[in-house]
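Researcher: Next entry in the queue.
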Amino acid sequence: MIKRQLAASLLGNEITRHIWRRNPRPGLRILAYHRVLDDDESSFPFDQEVISATTDGFIRQMKFVRDNFEVISFRDLEICEKQQRPWPKRGLIITFDDGYRDNYTNAFPILKELGLTATIFLTAGHIGSRELFWWDLVAYCIKHSARASINVPQIAPQPMWLTSGDARNTAIRDILRWLKVISENCKRTFVSQLTELTGISPPNHETEPMHLNWTEVSEMANFGFEFGSHTLTHPILTNVSEEQLVAEVGQAKTMIEQRLKREIIAFSYPVGRFDERVQTVVSNQGFQFAVSYQDDAAYQASFERYQLPRIHIERQQSLSEFRSVLLFPALMSRSGWLQASRLRNL
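Model: Structure for this entry, 346 residues:
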């Protein structure tokens, strides 16, 4: 970590940035965000791992983006392809996964003020809904349970202790890691039993909505934001049946297109997981591009349209780290530093 911070300080300093501006390194940067929030992680009732930045941190990051890159969309990539033109030399796409409401309340005003746009990948079935995402439900139930331990023999023969904040976070991490490798049907069964397991019911429907609604989506679209699909209910697509796969990809695309009255061309794989079967369905459903969580820039001469890499942004990153990762994505990502703290991507 210290070595990475030292490298970030060197690669992200003003002298290096000045040299880079005169001769920018090639490659399209695609940034991956989830939530922009100022909540205290220690008391946050849901999954804090999907908080990508504070509002102040996001402002600083976006000012750097504005001053050094040309923010574009996947539609711009399609136009370049059709017109056989090169991608912008300093091209960068800002993306958000899931469709959390703070994308509208916190990120949208900042981007609008700076004259920037973004692409938001919607989990279509949750838009306008108060139903929690499954990872937030797991985190909520574990964090609020009054029980000292729970038993999940599918994960470990011994009890999972809930006697401290660290113990609860470990339980959440272990459960979510397991849920990402089992079948979708088994995952749904387990999630449906969380109330019995923890003694906690989901928060009532009077709470502040966590997801975007279609009015907010339309407002951002009218401003110039692009929307893509992140499936219907956010399953891990490598864990679903063929029928479920086609439904999750196809129905979400249809729903978003009907709501926005425009074609949706970009797709984001939930937790970044895909295989050849998933890629084939995404292609057959009419998407032109799909993004993963492979850290790097994309290069026009060699890019694979259904596994475009993205640079994952985390709340713990300093501004120097953010700058260095954007200026030198291949160097910073291939070092392996970016993978060290990436326990889960949602």
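Model: DSSP finds 15 helices and twelve strands in the chain.
Researcher: Noted, moving on.
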